[in-house]
Specification:
The structure holds two protein chains of two kinds. By secondary structure, chain A is an all-alpha fold. Chain A contains seven helices and no strands. Chain A has one domain: Arp2/3 complex 21 kDa subunit ARPC3 (Orthogonal Bundle). In chain A, helix 4 packs antiparallel against helix 6. The longest helix of chain A is centred in the C-terminal third of the chain and has 25 residues. The longest helix of chain B is centred in the N-terminal third of the chain and has 51 residues. By secondary structure, chain B is of the alpha+beta class. Classes of the chains: A mainly alpha, B alpha+beta.
């Protein structure tokens, strides 16, 4: 039960931090970090896949409602929720009967960093290309994606390193 | 005898057919269960994608956007905190506007007194119909500047008389046009959204063109449709042209920051520094053009004839 409560709390906290603070943040004019996806990235590894998809959709739609983007965040969030299991299997071998919550302690530093980098990059790439909806400003969009991903990754790793076991 | 054989044959055929059907069904159900997650994934992605594409629809945008009451309630709360830190600048702007208004009053009084002396018996004084405006003051409770398609939410809505397509200005200049309205809130498409093109002109020589945001920097926009024979200078002031009924003539839009023209081009590439700073926007006025309906109806009926 506490893990459910913990996740509900995390959901609310991350959405508030995203819409009230980070949506107003603008490093260098166009870098906009999206840390709300930390919720999806921190779901226990063996969460039923249908549940994580539905939670990701709910999360995305909530952020969409606050930022007038209508479906973009939902699309990107559902995509990374779908790709998450494969990514976890790619980087670590899970023990039988073990259901860890992803973090530095359970995954190990290098595996966790790789896991975060891959999924954050996929999320940002989807989101920014959906937002632009064109390939004309490809390099500009790509630079936005890379810079925003770097800021998001640093924020997420920072938050996670504050956590004690 | 023959009949019996026939029915038996038929029954067994029917049986095998049913068996085949149940076999297929079982496989189908197994298949569906096995790939249920993939189907759910595709289903959710299709929903989100349809929402992105149908973004324009009115009801949806009221339901799931920041004019939704819960969302905007929260924004209003967060804004009341942030606004406190902006009071000083807002006060400065207000006092500046106050003085300029007072100056205008004095000017107008002077003109009126001279007019009254000269023409008290002959001219029936009347405001021109295209100048009959009222302003509705509103406060910005949500504003983005870093997206490709930015929106602004105001704390006034249909109850305060705001309707779709009304123009929105601030003390500094043009802000945007109202897109959707709920009872207490309104969402504005600002100049910082490629969906909006504001018609504006040079104060100096009255050449008109469209102002379009380039999606990169919230301080600058581009101006189109200025042919190469027009004389330009850096710093020329741009004002609204009055050709769109949302804005009266003469509201500041910005200044020319930079302009380029290639040998082969027929039109200038003009970079405009916007008059409004969208990062500090807090108080705006919505323009209620009293003769909007009459003008639109007339224009429509003449198009139909």
């Amino acid at each position: 039960m506490p893990i459910v409560l913990q996740n509900i709390f995390r959901f609310i906290l991350l959405v508030l931090a995203q819409v009230l603070v980070l949506n107003n943040v603008q490093f260098l004019g166009f870098i906009n970090p999206y840390i709300y996806i930390l919720f999806i990235l921190s779901l226990p590894v063996l969460t039923p896949r249908w549940l994580s998809l539905i939670l990701a959709f709910a999360l995305g739609i909530t952020v969409d409602a606050f930022s007038n983007t209508m479906g973009m965040h939902a699309f990107a969030a559902v995509l990374i929720a779908f790709l998450r299991n494969g990514t976890v299997k790619l980087f670590i071998a899970l023990d039988e009967g073990n259901n860890p919550t992803p973090s530095f302690y359970t995954f190990g530093v290098s595996a966790y960093v790789k896991y975060i980098v891959v999924l954050v990059f996929i999320h940002h790439a989807t989101l920014f290309f959906l937002e632009a909806f064109t390939l004309t400003n490809f390099w500009f969009t790509l630079s936005k994606i890379i810079l925003s991903s770097v800021v998001t990754i640093l924020l997420i790793l920072g938050i996670q390193s504050l956590k004690t076991k | 005898m023959f009949f019996r054989v026939f029915t038996e044959n038929f029954c067994s055929e029917k049986h095998s057919f049913l068996r085949a059907v149940s076999f297929i069904m079982k496989n189908l159900i197994n298949f569906l269960i096995q790939y249920s997650v993939v189907f759910l994934f595709l289903f959710l992605e299709v929903i989100s994608f349809t929402m992105i594409v149908k973004n324009q629809e009115y009801q949806k945008s009221v339901f799931l956007s920041s004019s939704n009451s819960m969302v905007s309630g929260m924004y209003e709360w967060s804004n009341s905190v942030v606004e406190f830190f902006k009071l000083r600048v807002a006060n400065d702007n207000l006092s500046e506007e106050n003085t300029s208004l007072k100056n205008q009053i004095i000017n107008l009084q002077n003109k009126l007194s001279t007019l009254q002396k000269e023409t008290h018996d002959s001219v029936h004084f009347k405001i021109p119909p295209e100048m009959e405006y009222q302003f509705i003051a509103a406060k910005v409770i949500n504003c983005t500047t870093n997206k490709l398609q930015n929106y602004i939410t105001l704390n006034k809505g249909a109850d305060d008389g705001i309707k779709i397509d009304m123009g929105v200005i601030s003390d500094e200049g043009v802000v945007g046009i109202v897109k959707t309205v709920s009872a207490c809130f309104a969402v504005v498409i600002p100049v910082l959204n490629p969906k909006l093109e504001v018609s504006c002109k040079f104060k100096r020589n009255n050449y008109t063109g469209g102002l379009l945001w380039n999606g990169i920097d919230y301080r600058y926009a581009n101006m189109t449709d200025i042919a190469r024979h027009v004389e330009l200078a850096l710093g020329d002031t741009l004002i609204t042209s009055g050709l769109t009924p949302a804005f009266p003539e003469g509201i500041p839009v910005g200044n020319i920051e930079d302009f380029k023209i290639k040998e082969s081009d027929a039109y200038y590439k003009i970079k405009v520094k916007l008059a409004v700073n969208f990062r500090t926007l807090s108080h705006v006025k919505v323009i209620n053009y009293l003769n909007y309906k009459e003008q639109k109806d007339l224009e429509k009926s003449s198009e139909e004839q």
